[in-house]
Amino acid sequence: MNRTILHVDMDAFFAAVEQRDNPELRGRPVIVGSDPKQGKGRGIVATCSYEARRLGVHSAQPISRAWRLCPQGVYLRPDMERYARASERIMALLLEFTDLVEQVSVDEAFLDVSGCRRLFGGGEEIAGKVKARILQAQRLTASVGVASNKFVAKVASDLRKPDGLVVVEPGTEREFLNPLPIGRLWGVGSKTEKALHMMGIERIGQLAVFDRAALIRRFGASSDHLWRLAQGLDERPVLPEEGYQSIGHELTFEEDTLDAARLHATLLGLTEKVSRRLRAHGVRCRTITVKLRESDFSTFTRRTTMTKAADTTEAMFPVAERLLRGLARKGKAVRLIGIYASHLQAVSGAGQLDLFDEGQNRNRKLAGAVDDIARRYGSGAITRGSLVPSMKKRS
Prior knowledge:
The chain is an alpha+beta fold. Helix content is 41%, strand content 21%. The strands form 3 sheets. Strands 5-6-1-7-8 form a 5-stranded mixed β-sheet. The protein has a 4-stranded antiparallel β-sheet with strand order 9-12-10-11, covered by helices on one side. The protein has a 3-stranded mixed β-sheet with strand order 3-2-4. Helix 4 packs across helix 6, helix 4 packs parallel to helix 13 and helix 13 runs antiparallel to helix 14. The longest helix has 21 residues. The radius of gyration is 22 Å and the shape is globular. The C terminus is likely disordered.
């Protein structure tokens, strides 16, 4: 039986949430990734509204560049907790259609609706219902791709944004992919794309007819996966248990810093945000990664896997702090610091408490109480005392 796979991708998600929650922002270019100093920050664009995109602003662009292109834009710091709450509600809506939902980031997911076509109709009809349900419940638009596999569905969802719906009928995958740029293939980064261009391969269809053995000789055995994708072949199932690959936060300092105390406090604050998001999503992490970028843009990461999965700052920060000590180089100013939690595991109701670790249980109960306060009064209503001096210093 042909599978019916949907890829649901929210449109300009962070900016759309901001515009939804603040009517004054609707119709205006909104750039998420900086503070209200508008263009004086040194971060990058996390996402932006389509009004800003029409002016040349795009994700991963330096804020300074975005400001030159769009000085009239509204520049906002990301509110990841608010976006995570919106994401949770959207994913819950997707589960109304099928229990085979694989969330791959805060704003996108795959659905396998093969088994519910009798209940909800064909792939295009289900996609329309999904879009309508999200719009009705969350006042946000999504673009959806429908295909017989994950790769083609993902490519399809990106073709007619925003609020798009693209259906690739079974058997037409090659025809659909052939004219598209080679860079749309999963696994083709900038270096591989450049190498393929030098070989005269600029479209997916050109790779699809390229000699398979020659491709493997040039790029290694892993390139066989690219060749299969170019054929429109992708047998990977939708795996609900995989969920997020990682949850993380990072911060770009307005001025490069050598201040170890500031790095320590910033990492603590970022760890607090990550742990709160872990609890919001009902997951714990086994692996912690710390990222450091120096003033010359040299970037370093260190990671470690813990013996016990964690979802509290008390358990995660000592690990992150050790990694930071291993990364920080004497005399090297730091431009950016970040922390990521991965190797995530769902927390069942019965597994919430650890019978043999009363300290962790107390920390989780305290964290739960703090989460309740933050949900009720906002994320700024309560913070760690150790963060107050550094926050005042930055203000």
